[in-house]
Structures are given as C-alpha cells and as structure tokens.
Backbone:
C-alpha cells in the first residue's frame, strides 16, 4: 500500500482511538496503582501489556476495539496493514475506510462470522 494511503488509514485509526482509550485508561490506572514501583518505571511497556491483557480478560467490546486499533497501527509500522491475516489477500480499501482496524477481507470475515454464528446460536 502507498505511504500516503497508510498515513490516511493511520489517521482514521488514531481518530477512533481517544474515545475508547479513555474508557480503558481508568482501569489501566487502577492496575498500575496496584503494581510495584519497579514496574512503574517501565510504564510504557507495562501500559501496552496491560491494555492487551485487559482486553483479553474483560472481553469487553471497547477494550477489544482498542486492542484491534493497536494491532492495526502495529501492522502499519510492520508494513503488513491492509492484507488479510487469514488468506493474505489485500483487503478492499472501501472496507478499510469503513473499518480501518479490519484484519480480514470480506470473504474471510463472512466465513468467521458464519462459524461464530453457528456456535452462538441456541439449539432449538
Ligand atoms: Zn482473507
């Protein structure tokens, strides 16, 4: 993907972040307060770990969204942004406009959603 486009999606991702990050940061602060002084010295690294750990633990929609955005920003840095992590094909740019943190192309997303739906649906 072109650098100018990557920059565009990076801005979209960052624009989505603050509202959700605020929600998480209160819990982060509490978690960091509980941590030892030694741990506070490496707050930057700890913050990232705490964010991802809590996103997994809470299974909270907003925390998960922050983690997704975080991952997407990481993929921009790594140069793997905009490529489906499942099949390796490029993700449609219109899809990225709507969901800049998208990890999958529409086809793989549909397969994953279908599998989830089957598991979640109560058996009648
Ligand atoms: Zn795919």
Residues:
């Amino acid at each position: 993907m072109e650098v100018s486009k990557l920059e565009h999606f990076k801005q979209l991702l960052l624009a989505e972040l603050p509202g959700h990050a605020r929600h998480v940061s209160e819990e982060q602060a509490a978690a960091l307060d509980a941590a030892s002084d030694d741990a506070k010295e490496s707050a930057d690294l700890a913050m990232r770990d705490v964010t991802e750990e809590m996103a997994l633990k809470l299974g909270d929609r907003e925390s998960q969204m922050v983690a997704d955005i975080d991952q997407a920003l990481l993929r921009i840095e790594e140069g793997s942004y905009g490529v489906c992590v499942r099949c390796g094909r490029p993700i449609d740019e219109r899809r990225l406009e709507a969901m800049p943190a998208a990890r999958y192309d529409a086809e793989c997303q549909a397969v994953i959603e279908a599998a989830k739906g089957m598991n979640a649906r109560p058996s009648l």
Summary: Helices lie at 3-34, 37-41, 43-58, 61-78, 93-98, 106-120. The mean pLDDT is 80. The first helix runs from residue 3 to 34. The two ends are 46 Å apart (CA to CA).
